[in-house]
Specification:
Length: about 300
């Protein structure tokens, strides 16, 4: 452990060594141990996340040292995900409250909503009705409400606990008039509507993969990950229900993780189009209302 009077930079190096030694899982808050540990230390010390590099030279007081030690113990020994320690997660410039009731936000829709969505819509300014299926913390419903300022967003989740967190976030983003939350198994309990956009980041991991997850990912609600035996259970239900709820020019977008090949096989008739993502994962598919409506007949 760094000696008394050690600087923030010394603690950062120490934290990075712990992350490597204990093989902590990454990917929930940041992709590298350096970025996650720096985030955790700055947050613990109440310093801005965009602090200049010279803060690393700052020696820690006795109280700060104790706070950092506690935080690192919770992360390294108890394997608590960083976002559950800080009770926040960031998608771009947007901050969301999180705790163990919801999966930590980290969706490809963060890049797709601002960069690609409008190109698939006849008139993005006329988007009035949007649905976020499997909303969790409400993060994507909130990104959608910001992106389509004239739209009403229906956000649904089967987990009552997740919806409690979504309610906090909708309130903090001052969107209670535009986002309606529903407790529902996919669309079962949501009033009929003609959506311009239905978007979903559903649970899509095959159950066996979920059983083998690291402690950090197991700390997230299982129902946020578990897509049934082949991962497709919720996606199937969503596609069966979506056609009846889309406007004629509407679209469905679904993030599917590693299920691209399985989707292409099972839903070839729907002609899923795979959107490019910066890391080439290309795991978000877009399906047109016309394809879904013809498929259901
Ligand atoms: C992968 S998380 C996505 C959460 C959020 N949209 C995000 O991107 O961070 C999937 C969510 O689906 C919810 N869920 C699981 N099964 C569901 C179902 N049958 N109907 C509706 N929501 C469901 C889970 O509770 C969880 O909040």
């Amino acid at each position: 452990m760094p000696p008394a009077g050690a600087s923030l930079g010394d603690w950062l190096q120490y934290a990075e060594r712990l992350y490597a030694r204990e093989k902590l899982a990454l990917g929930q808050v940041a992709a590298s141990a350096h970025d996650e540990a720096l985030y955790l230390l700055l947050h613990t010390l109440g310093l801005p996340l965009d602090s200049p590099a010279h803060v690393l030279a700052k020696p820690l007081t006795t109280a700060e040292r104790a706070a950092v030690e506690t935080m690192l113990r919770r992360r390294v020994v108890d394997r608590v995900p960083a976002a559950y320690l800080t009770h926040e997660a960031w998608l771009g410039e947007h901050r969301f409250y999180v705790d163990e009731r919801v999966i930590i936000p980290r969706s490809y829709f963060l890049e797709i909503i601002p960069q690609q969505l409008d190109g698939w819509l006849p008139d993005p300014e006329k988007v009035r009705r949007v649905a976020d299926v499997c909303t969790g913390s409400g993060c994507l419903a909130i990104l959608l409400a910001h992106h389509f300022p004239a739209a009403k967003v229906d956000a649904l989740d089967l987990s009552a606990e997740a919806l409690e967190v979504a309610e906090i976030n909708v309130r903090e983003h001052r969107l209670t008039r535009r986002i309606a939350l529903y407790r529902s198994d996919v669309f079962d309990a949501v009033p009929a509507a003609n959506y311009d956009v239905i978007l979903s980041n559903p649970p899509y991991e095959p159950s066996a993969h979920v059983n083998a997850q690291t402690p950090e990912f197991k700390a997230e609600p299982r129902m946020a990950h578990d897509g049934g035996k082949d991962g497709l259970v919720i996606i199937r239900k969503l596609l069966q229900q979506a056609g009846a709820r889309l406007a004629p020019q509407g679209i469905v977008l679904i993030e599917v993780g590693g299920l691209q090949a399985a989707m292409n096989r099972e839903f070839a008739a729907l002609e899923p189009h795979w959107l490019r993502t910066e890391d080439s994962a290309d795991c978000v598919c877009l399906i047109h209302a016309a394809r879904l409506q013809a498929w259901r007949r």
